[in-house]
Amino acid sequence: MSAQAGHADPAPATMRPMRVDDLESVLDIELRAYPFPWTRGIFHDCLRAGYPAWVLELDGVIIGYGMLTIAADEAHVLNVCTAPEVQRQGHGRRLLRSLLKAARHRGAQHVFLEVRPSNTSAIALYDSEGFNEIGRRPRYYPARGGREDAIVMAKELFADD
């Protein structure tokens, strides 16, 4: 986030491609950030399939990650997450923007994602980055005591994004 938005710029962090040997750190964040986290197998399968994935490091420690898939001219953001202790510092925005840039460079013209209605901070981030709600997937996510819908959001990618 920029100072214009009333938030401090994030501390200097570096982004690099995610590797299988990063999965311990990624899973640690995933387990702390989500009540229904991805499994090691899901991450491993995505990496094995060649899905673009990155980690964000601060002082050599992974503090966030993102993954997407691209087919034809469409990209799908699969997972964007920052460690709970560094949330609301602009790191998620940086990861999202990097995913969008990678999608655009690989020829994607549209990008989609799903988000829980209860994840209001993620919805606010996606809204501020130009995503629009285009639909809902009923009972998409597991939730305590049942299932939770998913908001489906989309954004058109332009050369100047």
Number of domains: 1
CATH architecture: 3-Layer(aba) Sandwich
- Please count the helical segments: 4
For the sheet with most strands, the description reads: 7 strands, mixed
CATH level 1 name: Alpha Beta
Relative helix content: 25-40%
* SSE topology string: EHHEEEHEHEE
Which value, in Å, is the CA radius of gyration?
15 Å
Task: Give a description of the structure.
The longest helix is centred in the middle third of the chain and has 15 residues, at 91-105. This protein is α+β, with helices and mostly antiparallel strands. β3 (61-71) and β4 (74-82) form a beta hairpin. Helix content is 27%, strand content 37%. The chain has a single domain, classed as Gcn5-related N-acetyltransferase (GNAT) (Aminopeptidase, 3-Layer(aba) Sandwich), CATH 3.40.630. It is globular. It contains four helices and seven strands. It has a seven-stranded mixed sheet with strand order 1-2-3-4-5-7-6, with helices on both faces. It starts with 13 loop residues before the first strand and ends in a 5-residue tail after the last strand.
Summarize it.
The chain has 161 residues and is α+β, with helices and mostly antiparallel strands.
Record the SSE blueprint.
Blueprint: E1 14-17, H1 23-33, H2 40-48, E2 53-58, E3 61-71, E4 74-82, H3 91-105, E5 110-115, H4 120-128, E6 132-143, E7 146-156
